[in-house]
């Protein structure tokens, strides 16, 4: 005799899908549910991060720039940061000026190429980034702590497969 699995708890996305099914009878409940949950989760993490950063007197774009620098072991060229942040090089210049005035980064002329500028995190920049990322990381762990380590690995693997499709080259956006 097969045991019935208990019905999973319902979240607000289940109600969202239920509202759309009569309007769109061919709606794939699982696709709509997965996409909507990813959107809500991304929105939750974005709001959490922005709220958390207020306590460190950091705006989202400042944190993102410090984070990009930290990911390059604390040093990068402005063009590398523009690529990492997917923004125009001119936008990076403004960010760097603000961060430099605050003592979180230093910009120096490159020793390899006098035409180039190198950007480095200062000790204060490293400290601000570490403190800020701590709370963000704790919230990510809190949320994904609902899953076992094996489930987290499986979720990551499944999302990677979806991302690979999204990142297919020469795929026109319509």
Query: Which structural category fits the helices and strands?
Result: mainly alpha
Strand content: 5-15%
- The CATH architecture designation of the largest domain is Orthogonal Bundle
The gross shape turns out to be: elongated
Low-confidence stretches: none
End-to-end C-alpha gap: 50 Å
Report the total helices: 7
Strand tally, please?
Answer: 3
Going by CATH, the homologous superfamily of the largest domain would be Winged helix-like DNA-binding domain superfamily/Winged helix DNA-binding domain
Number of domains: 2
Order of SSEs, N→C? HHHEHHEEHH
Q: Classify the fold: give the CATH topology of the largest domain.
A: Arc Repressor Mutant, subunit A
Architecture overview:
There is one protein chain. With 174 residues, the chain is mainly alpha-helical. The protein folds into 2 domains: 14-54, no CATH class; 57-140, Arc Repressor Mutant, subunit A (Orthogonal Bundle), CATH 1.10.10. The chain has 7 helices and 3 strands. Strand 2 (105-109) and strand 3 (117-121) form a beta hairpin. It is elongated and about 70 Å long. The chain starts with 11 loop residues before the first helix and ends in an 8-residue tail after the last helix. The model has no long low-confidence stretch (mean pLDDT 92). Pfam families: MarR. Keywords: DNA-binding, Transcription, Transcription regulation. Residues 24-164 form the HTH marR-type domain.
